[in-house]
Amino acid sequence: MILEASNITFAYPENGPVLSGVDLRLEPGTVTGLFGPNGSGKSTLLRCLNGVLRPESGQIKLAGRPLHDFPAREIARCVAVVPQESRADLSLTVQEMVMLGRYPHTDLWGDETPKDRDVVTASLAKVHAERLTQRPFNHLSGGERQRVVIARALAQEAEVLLLDEPATHLDIAHQLELYQLLRALAFQKYAILLVSHDLLLAPLFLDRAVLLAGGAVIASGAPGEVLSADHMHATFGVDLVVTWTDDLRMTVQLPRGCSTKRLNMAAC
Amino acid sequence: MRSRLVLPGLAALLATCCLLALGVGSVHVPPTETFHRFWAALCGRGTGDLFDAILFQTRLPRIILAAAVGASLALAGVAAQSLFQNPLAGPHVIGVSNGAALGAVAGMLIFAGRMGDSHWVVTLCSLVGGIATTFGVFVLARRARHLGYALLLAGIAVGALCAALTAGVLYLSGEQLANIVFWLMGGLWRANWREVEMVVPVLLMTFLMLRFFAPEMNAALIGERSARDLGVNVTRLQNVLIGAVAIPTAVVVSLTGVIGFIGLIVPHLMRMTVGEDHRRLVPASALGGALLLVIADTAARTLAAPAEVPVGILTALIGAPVFLWLLQRRMNRGGSG
Fold this sequence. Notes:
- The complex is a heterodimer.
- By secondary structure, chain A is α/β, with parallel strands linked by helices.
- Chain A has one domain (about 5-225): P-loop containing nucleotide triphosphate hydrolases (Rossmann fold, 3-Layer(aba) Sandwich).
- Chain A contains nine helices and twelve strands.
- In chain A, strand 4 and strand 5 (about 65) form a beta hairpin.
- In chain A, helix 4 crosses helix 5 (about 140-155).
- Chain A is globular.
- Chain A starts with a strand and ends with a helix.
- Chain B is an all-alpha fold.
- Chain B has one domain: ABC transporter involved in vitamin B12 uptake, BtuC (Orthogonal Bundle).
- Chain B has helices at about 1-25, 30-40, 50-85, 95-110, 120-140, 145-170, 175-185, 195-210, 215-220, 225-230, 235-255, 260-275, 280-300, 310-330.
- In chain B, helix 3 (about 50-85) packs parallel to helix 8 (about 195-210) and helix 4 packs antiparallel against helix 5.
- At the A-B interface, helix 2 of A face helix 9 and helix 10 of B.
């Protein structure tokens, strides 16, 4: 299923334009990274892509049909969102939490069917969280919670996944685990959009990258080209040079004049 | 598995309590005889003697009214807690009971004696007060960053304002003062079949509405934004919940005065028993609320017999310490409300 935005603009009444002339195409089997400084419109774009916000102009198409022709529940059956933060105080069990992802598929009274239960079990298996099934959500670690939230999105059986900075509160091990999970899902023909501030690790796992600044697309294409030194300077105002190689090596050159005193001390 | 037994268990307990309550009072009727008379009346073989009159014309409507009022208030509490995403919300805590009481008192004074049957007008005034308060508190609380604290503060402020206005109206009430003050304390002593006929349809409507929207309320547990992502029409859900808080509360307040805290403690206790899933929480709260008020009202009419303690005093005496306990528990866990 292809989700495509063409030349969309969006403005909040109180804040003025947030997106202007944005093009984006998400294809099955690919992981696309969406980068940009704070306030560049990444989250707004994501909410336009799942139909919660309606662009002022331009068009978003899902499988060739205008997105706003779909009822909200039908969009949720095709496009799932993993939010930046989830309520950590819910005492729902993991099973119940993932079952919420079946909402777009439920009947009038919300009764669970054997298929719902099978999909929930399969979704938990995809994120390797089967053993958590009966644990209360509020007893999980940050990494476990994020996996459960992804399982909830998978339970929607949507073919397009939009993830809004999912690695923000994760340690390095859980970040790597998350990115590998996204690659595995892309292998299963999901179309994935990863909104991220991680300019170092995340690009290693992407097929494409899109750089957004001031609500407009600055560059899109291969991650190494999009996140070039020039684009970094123009978008973030820092002279950061990162290079990635095909054998999963990465070098980082910090901006000139950036103090590394603490690093040197640690090395001693 | 345990939670599956809760609903039949509560239903059985409620039926037993109702039957026992039927026999309790100034004229004591043993449970077995109560059961036999009840069964005979159900089969159309009632004797129609004095005992039957006491059981079925005086006590039965009161017990059914108590159960219906308790269930309605508990359901209003479930709706309030879902609307504000806060387990400390309840029709009393967020000031809706006070708003409905203000409407009802104003209605009583304005229309008393002017219309033949003024009770529907009083209920209507109570509805206006209840809906306006729920909506007002919701709008005020939503503007704040932390909905939980804002809700409690807005509820306290609006509730206090309504209480002050009620006091002002009472000051002007002249010779009706004593009656209205006694009514305000909350009680079921005026119970009759007509009041049962008013509350039961509202209860059924509220129950069906909340059960119908239970999947949406479940989805809303993960936050307004995520619920929208799942395809929930959040605005429609919030409008339904405002109605489900205000309508049963207002109808009940107009008939029985202010019976506080049932809408707060019952959903909370039921949540601890059956979990957060509203498909179970809604029926469990209805049964729990009915059970609590049947017990409290039986105590209210027997503790100081032949006099009667307003049941609102009893529920507040139980509810206020439980509320403080819940607040403390929440603060200890570092919840933001």
